Give the backbone structure.
Amino acid sequence: MQTMTQFRAAVSVRLVAALCTFLFGLCAHAQDYPSRSVRIVVPYPPGGPNDIIVRIVAQKLTETRGHPFVVENRPGAGGNIGTGFVAKSAPDGHTLLSVGPGSLIINPLIGKVPYDTARDFAPVTLMARAPHALVAHPSLPAGSVNELIALARSQPGRINYGSGGNGSTPHLAGALFAAMARIALTHVPYKGTAPATADLIGGQVQIAFLGIPTVLPHVKSGKLRVLAVTGKRRSPELPGVPTVDEAGVPGYELSPWYGLLAPAGAPREIVARLAAEVTKIVRAAEIRDKLAVQGAEVAGGTPEEFTAVIQADISTWARVIKDTGIRGE
């Protein structure tokens, strides 16, 4: 007859064996990843900084992983449609989200969204940061931030600024600028950064705060005039352009980030492996130089580090939204 000690020993052996089998299965699953094409959803139209940055990363992932990493644009509702789509996707690592603070943090703070940022996503890694540029149509009679502020004060509400949508980081950037400079600007939301940029070039709006990767070609061609950059430091691609802080609005700083997330429940081994792979890619000299040309600064890091960035930014943006009085549409 089996003693209690023997029974417990037998159970322990079976539990250890089951655990080893489970862990082996996870490791094998991670080793086989990806087993097919990976879809990276960008919840905005093509042409924005998020789209530009992730396409550079996706191309390199395709080369190194043996399966295509395909960028798919799913715009609408200020980024909520594409973001919500990924939240409800199978958590197997074959559908990812490339996003910035707009739909992930700001939209939930100003209105109802079909997802919960903390509950529905597994942060993978931060790809890059890309400060915005304050750009103007060449016809605007203001060649500096101080001249813009003076013009806005003489014509309250007459200067329009475009953005990629209500609650987008370009919207928050403009609202924060207006609040700190004590001027009145009129916000004109678009369905993405690309149409906002097109109308700025066309003169339908006078200024905008847009990602440096988006506006750099138009600045170099003379279609847009850059007045300042929003980061803590000057951009290496625009070394002669002051920061907004330097140019006349002390304390102003905004450096949006762009990162990868998976649906909640994605295997930790796959998430960790993706984070390590993307970090290696963006920190390689070749990709770092490509991103620098786009006005972006590489990041990378662990899922835990990216999670901490998201949590900190939720607090920061909540305070900015309260101070600027922004509400959802």
